[in-house]
Every structure is written in C-alpha cells, then in structure tokens.
Amino acid sequence: MAVVLPPHRHEACYRHEALGVVFQVRDGRLNVLLWRRAASPFEGAWALPGGPLGPGERLGASASRHLATKVDLKEIAHLEQLETRSDPVRDPRGRVLATAYLALVTTGARPHVPADTAWHPVDDLPPTAFDHGSITGSARERLRAKLSYTNIGFALAPETFTIAQLRDIYAAALGHPVSATNLQRILTRRGVIEPTEEVARPAAAGGRPATLYRFAARTLVVTNPFAAFRPRIPSPGTGSEGRQPLNA
Amino acid sequence: MAVVLPPHRHEACYRHEALGVVFQVRDGRLNVLLWRRAASPFEGAWALPGGPLGPGERLGASASRHLATKVDLKEIAHLEQLETRSDPVRDPRGRVLATAYLALVTTGARPHVPADTAWHPVDDLPPTAFDHGSITGSARERLRAKLSYTNIGFALAPETFTIAQLRDIYAAALGHPVSATNLQRILTRRGVIEPTEEVARPAAAGGRPATLYRFAARTLVVTNPFAAFRPRIPSPGTGSEGRQPLNA
DNA sequence: GAAGGTTTTCGACTTATAGTCGATAACTAT
DNA sequence: ATAGTTATCGACTATAAGTCGAAAACCTTC
C-alpha cells in the first residue's frame, strides 16, 4: 500500500475495523442487529457486525462489505459515519481502532440473517462485547437528533405508509409518544412527506381508510436548518434595498 | 467468527493521523490555524496541524499533542471529534487514515504560534494541502449547527463580554447577521449566558455602558434539545394520572 | 339500511419561541 | 445643558408547535 514511504522512517501502524449499527423498527420497537460470539473474548456476548478494513478500501465500503455477510445489503436504506473509537484496550486481543457506521433498514423489510445473528430491542440489550453497547447508544442518539431536523425517517419507513404507521415508527425510534396530528402537519409543511393518491385498507375493526403517504426524497436532506438568531429575509420589493440594520 | 485470532493470519494495518481544525474569531472573522508546508507533496500549500497517532495513544490525546506544537494548549477551550477520512489516495505518499478534531480558541487569546504557522479567514483560504480544505468545511458546518442548539459559544467568547461583542462573534462564526436583542433574549432564557455585576467601560465615543455577561457553563451542554413531535408534559397535579392518550 | 363502533383527518384554539422596532437609559464630549 | 452614542428593554408581530374535539369514512351487526 505505502508507495514512496521513506524507508528510514518507522511509523507505527494500526489495525482498523468498521462496525455497523443496523437499526430497524420491528413490532413497534427500535431493534439493533447483533451476532453472538462463539469464542473468547466475550464468548456468548453479542457484538455489532463488522470486520477489518481492507487494503485500498474506504471505511464506508468496508462497513458495507462486512454488513453484507449479516444482512441483505439491498435493505440498507441509509449509511453514515458515526465516530471512531481509539481506546487502546477496547479490544483485549490488541489494539484495533474502530469506526462505527449508522445503518438503517426500513420497517417491513425482512432480510434473511444468519443463524448466529438476531435483532434485539435497543432498550433491552443482552450483554454486549467490547464497547459495542456504548457505540449503540451513540448511534441511537444520532438517530434521534436527525429524526427531528432531517428527513431521515425515509430510511425507517416503508415505501408508502399511513400517518398512524409513521407515528409508531417515530415513537419507537424517538423513545417517547408522538402525536399523529402534529407529525402529519409538521412533516407535510416541511415538504418531507406527501400524500399519494391511494388509501390503505381499513383494519379488521373498520374505521376510516387512511391516505397513504410517501417521503418526497429518499436521500438525506436537512429540512429544519439551524437558523437561530438569523434575521428574516424581508419579502422582495418591500422597503429600501441594501439595508443591514442588524449588524450596524 | 475468528476465534482466538489465528497467528498465521496476516491482518493489514494502517498509518493513522490526528488533525486539528483550530478556529478562532479574530477581527470579526472566523479564522483557522494553518501551517505552510516547506516540502513536497503540496509544497507551499497550507495544511492543518496534526501528525501520526502514537502507540498506546488515543486519538483525542494525539490531536492535543500535535496541536501543542503549533498553539498553546491552554488556549483550547473545546475539542471534539469530527470525522475520519479514509480515501486511499488522500495522501499521495501512501495510505494514511485521518481523524479530524474541532478545536476552539476564545476570542482575545493571542497564543504564540511558530513562524510557519498563521491564521486564515475560513472564507478566504489559501491553497490547501491534501483534503484539508474539505475537512475545514465540515468543521465549520459542525460549529454552525452546534452554535444554535448548544452552549458551544463559551469556547469562542472571552470570560466576560458584552452582548455586542457576543453578537459579533456569533455573526462571524455563523456567517450571517445576528440580532443582539434576539441573541440576548434567547441565550438568557435558555440559561446559556447570565449577567455579571460588572459593566464594560463605554467606548471612546461614549454611550451607555454595557452589562458584562458570562457563560453559565464552560463545558458543552445541549440547551435546545430536538423535541419535535413530543407532547408537552402537563403541569403536575393537573388532571387524571396515567393518561397516555397520544399513543392510544 | 339504520345504529353503533372504529379510525382517520381536519380545523380552531392555545402556547411557546423567535424576529422587529422604537422608546428610554446611561454614558461621553463639547 | 445639549448633542451624540451605545445599550437595554418592552411591546408588537410572525411562525412553529401542541391540544382538542368534531366530522368523515369505513366496518359490523341488527
């Protein structure tokens, strides 16, 4: 890999792994994909999918590659870098840096997973290996924050959905009750979701059929930008031009 | 899968460096600390301070250690991890992963910097080395976002300050005009800043002396949490208990 | 097909937060 | 004193968000 490395210079190098925190809302709860370690260290504990970075490989590609062994890659609707852990003793076998990625799978997708792998509700985790429990916590915080100022819900919700379904998904991911009325109004106003022509079949018990919505975009967009302290832009054609009174 | 790491297995390892994006507001503009490369590659271009990760060293400590050679460490009021770049060709000399850190220096501090090192306004950068220009851009976005939902301003502002000074600092870091009235009200309500007993001496031209403010905390606190879609908590003692109508 | 049950949707209201603007306060210099 | 300058504050407006209940649109049962 090293091309013109100065031969006299001895620079340390480090093993590096990519980890994926794969979230999916199942049965109204936020779940994370973990596999059970069969051997020491942390035998029997549950770990995040991941593995070593390959030569010439980027971290994002590495995360995808290792995830592909545990879950169908096509089902991963969003992937983003979280953080890099560098504690020298995070792995008792030796030093390994780890870069964690947040990966989201839409509700309803039922990707096939290997026998040693299973979904676990994030607020009821089994014993975890290494620092993977703490990494899962960071991932959850990131997801929570982004749900409120981006359209990241597209990666958790199915292609089309009713507002009630979306409310349940948001409630599971956010960890607190969500008002359907509010959710509909806010996301519609922001242009995050839009109604389709179709309606959902009413439940067995009957009830008014719900309109099906979809996400307007299926790539990440920041929809609620941090605009604090910014003066409003006056509507064009009004007032004198070139005024900048707030900075004077 | 791999149990007790088979000793015959040759796992690749990678050089890794920590980089610091040091920001300071100077003369009403957001500046970043860069040093001028004297040798190839990118001879004459400007680079972020940083250097290789040491054995047994954590990334944050490594960033601090390398920053110490370019700026007085005591002046760094806040340090946080940004992201890890892994493009195999980001360094033409060979593969080096880089983890970037955001570092903030308070206005007014005048740390001594080496001869090859200088401050540059972020919106008027000279030619930069490697991917350091892009990393600086990411850092700036992070700073902008955090200014609006955390108390991170404490790491940009001096110990005490007038609202007008704080407005200039925010305006420089955010890149848009800021209303002093609004800034005062919002940050006070959130409990981010608080008035001291003292007042500033009026400027040469006179004018009413301004109250000096300080930040209530000098460590990072999220003050404007993302609470979208969350129902309000009813004031205690009101209504029947145990109701959860929004999730029903 | 009328009645009653269920779920969705919508409008009207209230509250909280943020931006605007001008009046007043408190200083300096002449 | 008077004029000039800057800071502070209150009152107003605008926007966003949370609450609540009525009406809509389906189901099943009688």
Provide the fold topology.
The structure is a homodimer of 248-residue chains.
Chain A lengths: L14 E12 L2 E8 L9 E2 L2 E3 L6 H9 L8 E10 L10 E10 L11 E5 L10 H18 L13 H12 L5 H10 L3 E7 L11 E5 L33
Parallel strand pairs in A: 1-6
Antiparallel strand pairs in A: 1-2, 1-4, 2-3, 2-7, 5-6, 8-9
Helix pairs in contact in A: 3-4
The first copy, chain A, binds a DNA duplex (30 and 30 nucleotides) through helix 4.
Kindly identify the CATH topology of the largest domain in chain A.
Nucleoside Triphosphate Pyrophosphohydrolase
Number of domains of chain A: 2
As a whole number of angstroms, the C-alpha radius of gyration of chain A is 23 Å
Order of helices and strands of chain A: EEEEHEEEHHHEE
Identify low-pLDDT runs of chain A: 1-8, 237-248
List the quaternary state of the chains: homodimer
Helical residue percent band of chain A: 10-25%
Average pLDDT value of chain A?
Answer: 89
Query: Which pair of protein chains has the largest interface, and what are the residue counts?
Result: A-B, 60 and 57 residues
Q: What is the CATH-assigned architecture of the largest domain in chain A?
A: Alpha-Beta Complex
CATH level 4 superfamily of the largest domain in chain A = Nucleoside Triphosphate Pyrophosphohydrolase
Q: What is the rounded distance between the termini of chain A?
A: 56 Å
* Number of beta strands of chain A: 9
Which class best fits the helix and strand makeup of chain A?
alpha+beta
Bin the strand percentage of chain A: 25-35%
> Main β-sheet of chain A, in a few words?
7 strands, mixed
CATH domain class name of the largest domain in chain A? Alpha Beta
Number of helical stretches of at least 4 residues of chain A: 4
Assign an overall shape of chain A: globular
